Amino acid sequence: MNAPASATTPERILQRLDWQVIRRLDGLLQGDYRSLFYGYGIDFADLREYQPQDDIRYIDWNVTARMDAPYIRQYVEDREISAWFLLDLSPSLDFGTVQNQNLKRSMLIQFVATLARLLTRRGNRVGALFLTDRVEKKIPAGSGRLYVLRIIHELLKVPRLLQAPLTDLSPLLEAGLYSIKRRSLIFIVSDFLCKPGWEKAFKLLSQRHEVLPIRVTDPGESVLPDIGLVLMQDSETGEQLYVDTHDAKFRRRFLDVSRGREHELEQIFKRFGLDALTLSTDEDLVRAILRFARSRRMRRR
Asked: Is residue 235 part of a domain?
């Protein structure tokens, strides 16, 4: 999986992932994909009193107020999953270190293709929404291998912007909120390097659907190498600045800012009670997905 996804065709990308990723996942997960894709169906079944291990997102606040005790909604689990990928394809996703030779955009494409393939080959439906400097495209939900190839093809067609205003995730989340009617499994795939204020739409989306934030990162965004004077450019705004990476204090400040941003994101996801997967360009995709599966399995216990 070292070749950039954008350097080949949809068929070759999917063929490579079938051999190098999906076959390995089949063997290691032994068909237990519920740990990745568990969720609730759309059919309301019953109400019962809240238990400490229950997901707070399913508390019925109206009944809770009337009964003066927390009650939770129960749903009939649906065998068919409807999944959507809300994809941030803004300029910051075109970052990647020379050592990795793997852009964040390439990692995003590989992840989406893998999850779409795993879902659709079991009869589930997947759709996608793309964000560049605006909500670019909506691919309606569909199923089958040809549909996965269509999503990859459309991803490869999205133009790479040299620069754009700082990413605003809110329009993408709002588009998902208003256009996805059926209760669905929603993957929000982004580096989350964006304007503040997206949390409101994110909260509303997570109340209606099963939301899984997928954060795409690169080691070079948090750890600066000691390589002397370099010209740094903001991938979104195009602003340029010379910095001296020999300066240990500057490298430390850079790391502290990065860690602060990560901590803030973790707190947002924790506040909404959500699982989150971090995909780094220097990590094997299979190991990342297995780590995610273990985390979700533990959460269910």
From this structure: no
